[in-house]
Design a protein that fits this description.
The complex is a heterodimer. By secondary structure, chain A is an alpha+beta fold. In chain A, 28% of the residues lie in helices and 12% in strands. In chain B, α1 packs antiparallel against α2 (46-74), α1 packs across α6 (153-177) and α2 (46-74) crosses α4 (116-141). The two termini of chain B are 34 Å apart. The chains are: A alpha+beta, B mainly alpha.
Amino acid sequence: MTTMRSPWPMLALLLLFLLAGSPFIAGAATETGGDEAPGRKLAKQAIKRDKRWITTDHTKHDVLQKPFMSGEEVTQACLSCHSEASTQFHKTIHWTWLASGDKKEPKYGKAGYSVNNFCISANAMEDKSCLKCHTGWNGVENDVNCLKCHGMEKFNYTEAFADIQAFAEDDDPETKEIMAEIQAEVTTAVGKIGLPGRNNCGECHFKGGGGDGVKHGDLDTSLMKPNKALDVHMGIDGKDFTCTRCHTTTNHNIAGRIYTNPAVESSKSLLEDDLAPKITCVSCHSDAPHKNDSKMNDHADKVSCQTCHIPEYARINPTKMSWDWSKAGALKDGKPYHTKGDLGKDIYKSIKGEMTWEKNVTPEYFWSNGTQTSTTAEDVIDPSTVVEVSHPVGDANDPNSRIFPFKIHRGKQPYDKVNKTLLTPLLSGEKGYWTTFNWDESLKLGNETLGLPFSGEFDFVETTYAFPITHMVAPKDKALSCTECHTRDQGRLATLTGFYMPGRDRSPPVDSLGWMIILGSLGGVGLHGLGRFFTRNGRRKNHE
Amino acid sequence: MNEKKIIKIYLYTRFERFWHWLQAIMIVALTLTGLEIHGSFSLLGFQRAVNIHNFVGLSWLVLVAFFVFWLFTTGEWRQYIPTTKKLFAVVVYYSHGIFKGTPHPVEKSPGAKHNPLQRLTYLGLSLLLLPVQMVTGLLYYTWNDWAGLLMPLAPVAFVHTLLAFMLLSFLLVHVYMTTTGHSLFSHISGMITGWEEIYETTTIEEWELAGKRK
């Protein structure tokens, strides 16, 4: 008789440990409990107090009740209370259009030597159409137009004040009556003051490059009133974020990426730094936003949130993908013309050349540390290559770089064959290309505005311009699945090399050796088995 | 008639059998999910394959501790002491004798459950292949925590992949070898019931016999 106890209870205990313990080791047990991902929970807390409380009603301020004669008068009324606003604003990029606040360093910026492959250059603001978006009443010397960002009513002040000033010189009582009516309309509009809304920012940023959705691809008028499916944060059926909910502000400096600098030096959540700008995803969602057992959190140090959460851009309105200036200038019956394409957008314009548009575009992916190179009109280019006018800076081995989605706008634009620089044609105005269709003259005049040399010899060079894709974040069920990238061929990251990605990469020698071992084993046991089958394990002989 | 009488002895304890089959399931699961993660085929879906692979892999690490504990408390580790004695004879048997019906040169007995070739194979597995596979697996799993400090992911992945192929090769040969017993399934049924068939002439301790054991 044995007194040995049955081992089954011990094995059952072991199994129990396996089932209960392994998920814990794997990190599946959530300390917080519940199904909500920590990043969502944190972000919801961050916007719990969603309405700002305001202690003033601008319609009740006497200083805003008077009949205004000019925009500058409105600004003076604003400054009578907000005494420092103008001083602050004059130092910001929204006013200077220069990446550096120092006017002696005018290299980077719309008002500087920066070029793109759309309308190429602002020609030191010589191009008057720029002033539609500049935040002054008239040029860069005069007062700030506060209403551009803080006027809640969409109102054409420029036109209204032009009329008012024209009528003021007329003594006719009927004209005076009309003038008073316009002034009353202005006063009503001026009373509606608030924090910048989507309409204010969007008026310029949704239409950059000369039209809706031309430039960015993730910023167009579809974001004026988006639904959650288009932008999970801005959706008016959801959290209804305005731009400034993330683009937070200090002294009128609005957080965001500019030519030379990333939006932030390092991403910190509000738990780490509650007064930092809320411009990054990490600000509200933390750097480990997914559920604790999720491998997704392990991606966060190498893959930006945008990479998976913005599967496509330009999901409602089309965006311009290429622009060939070399085709510009063709006329029909001596007159400029334009041709519309499938998406309802011009695919040819005599004044601009040939262009293509796309909708639901899959981004291109690059390593990015948040900064971008910027080729200015001063920089020497290599015309035998595709010139990267703007391109993300980053490397797989740089701990600050992450894989980030981009729209790449491909252009063909004029360059100086002798000086090997990109040229900056003057486009608008009487002497601009859009009136004269004369490249030689408009290039000469354009480069003169910047004080840069032009040899007189030009040709067209292919260029690219990269826009980070960061808006139009889709709801979580639309985020990319693993195999969009973790796949052998034609994954989204197929072009990114220099690192090992499971599912995509392998060592051909290791795999060949491995399969040879497997085939060898199968062949070996197969032959051995056949041998045993035909010799009957030698038994027949034994029976004979 | 030179056939010897076959008897059954109790060779594998419950824990051994449990461990053996659990390990078998884990190896099959890890190989399947591992190859899917590797991109060799699509079966469960990448995400599920990763989750299962991680879960099973980490479970194995925990369970190995129990097995090592068992090995040393029972003294069963001695089963893995390598020997060259009769090693050549076993090799000759499997490459030659087995086709002629000559008997296996080393019969199983409770003191020596593995023949010299098995001892070497299992020792290699337990001391080299499995530990390295576990370490590279753990490095792979925790890569984000040490990324860039020691080396890139690629060499870890390459070693892990190569050893996976070698383990799969072992699995194939091992399963084939189970058919070389007294009958096609006698070894497999031995590992299921614990009772292995051996020839009567092998010296057996009294307590090991079926009738005498409860």
